[in-house]
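User: Just a sanity check before I run the rest of the batch. Below are the structure tokens for the first item. I only need the designed sequence back.
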């Protein structure tokens, strides 16, 4: 009989609390404002879609805002984010302006992807937002690659990969986890379990309900947590980011969340159980934070109303900006298909001679 190699011990749990300071009145107000702005922008995007001003697919993040905003509060500017196609909220949380997001949804040249990407392909390297991707699970290996690059370059950055419960069954997902753990890469895989992959509920798509358990197969640190409270998300993502940044390796998290709208603008979401949506709306992240601000930090209704008015104005402004912006010049259609040769690699494909 041959002796097998000893199996390493299971990974240690994440720190019970991150080392982030507790939120105070001002910092929680800022998180609240960001969530309200994301929601208002998406509500206006939905309206513009029905007016046929936005074309193609459009997947709204409404109900999940606490995950992106809490994660942003736990990250540093040098951290790189990558997301799937429900990424308007992540892009804005990472620092892309409402104007640049809305203009991209309208397909205008002033959009963050110069009007060439649309809803599913928001991208802004200036804030280290490495894009939204339409192939389910396809971006998870890219996150491993981004983390590998950051480790080689010693940037002290962490890659954060947002993906849905439906992505955690895809083959490339497992390969990405396997390599990230093997090379102890600084990456946090953040599953947003919103209970559905298109019209298929979580219990009809997987025998395993907590997707963070997928990490155990490769020896990865993991945790599942409630994602409705932005403060809690900030703390749990904070603990994971600190773990990854310290060189201990990757982490897989699952934030339990819920989307209040259909899968995309063309989905009336008739597959929900009666009363399910109403029940989940009791955990609306915006209402939870508003309650805490009013009850624990003495924020007045007038302050809440002023935030709502400011976010309404910013969202309206983003629509006006998008409407008045020019269309992309067709001459630029192929300009960004391939990266030009870079100083990093010394080589690389050209953009087809353009
Ligand atoms: C490889 C691949 N298979 C199928 C699809 C079709 N599709 C688009 S979204 C989706 C559901 C994904 O659900 P989830 O990952 O939970 O994300 P959510 O929409 O809930 O944010 C599917 C199956 C696709 N885009 N790519
Ligand atoms: Mg889902």
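Assistant: Here's the designed sequence for the first item:
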């Amino acid at each position: 009989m041959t002796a097998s190699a000893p199996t390493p011990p299971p990974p240690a749990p994440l720190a019970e609390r991150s080392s982030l300071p507790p939120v105070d009145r001002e910092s929680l107000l800022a998180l609240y404002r960001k969530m309200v702005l994301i929601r208002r922008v998406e509500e206006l995007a939905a309206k513009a879609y029905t007016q046929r001003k936005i074309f193609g697919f459009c997947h709204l993040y409404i109900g999940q805002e606490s995950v992106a905003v809490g994660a942003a509060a736990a990250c540093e500017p040098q951290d790189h984010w990558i997301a799937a196609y429900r990424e308007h909220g992540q892009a804005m949380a990472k620092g892309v302006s409402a104007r640049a997001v809305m203009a991209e949804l309208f397909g205008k040249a002033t959009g963050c992807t110069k009007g060439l990407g649309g809803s599913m392909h928001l991208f802004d390297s200036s804030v280290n937002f490495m894009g939204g991707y339409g192939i389910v699970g396809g971006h998870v290996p890219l996150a491993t690659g981004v983390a590998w690059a950051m480790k080689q370059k010693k940037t002290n950055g962490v890659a954060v990969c947002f993906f849905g419960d439906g992505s955690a069954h895809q083959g490339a997902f497992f390969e990405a986890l396997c390599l990230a753990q093997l090379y102890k890469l600084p990456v946090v895989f953040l599953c947003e379990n919103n209970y559905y992959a298109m019209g298929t509920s979580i219990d009809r798509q997987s025998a395993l309900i907590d997707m963070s358990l997928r990490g155990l197969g490769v020896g990865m640190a993991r945790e599942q947590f409630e994602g409705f409270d932005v403060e809690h998300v900030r703390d749990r993502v904070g603990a994971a980011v600190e773990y990854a940044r310290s060189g201990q390796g990757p982490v897989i998290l699952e934030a339990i969340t819920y989307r209040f709208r259909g899968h995309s603008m063309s989905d009336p979401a008739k597959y929900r159980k009666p009363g399910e949506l109403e029940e989940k709306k009791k955990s609306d992240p915006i209402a939870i934070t508003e309650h805490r601000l009013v009850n624990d930090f003495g924020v007045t209704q007038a302050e809440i109303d002023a935030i709502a008015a400011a976010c309404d104005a910013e969202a309206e402004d983003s629509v006006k900006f998008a409407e008045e912006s020019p269309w992309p010049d067709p001459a630029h259609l192929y300009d960004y298909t391939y990266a030009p040769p870079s100083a990093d690699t010394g080589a690389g494909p050209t953009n087809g001679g353009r």
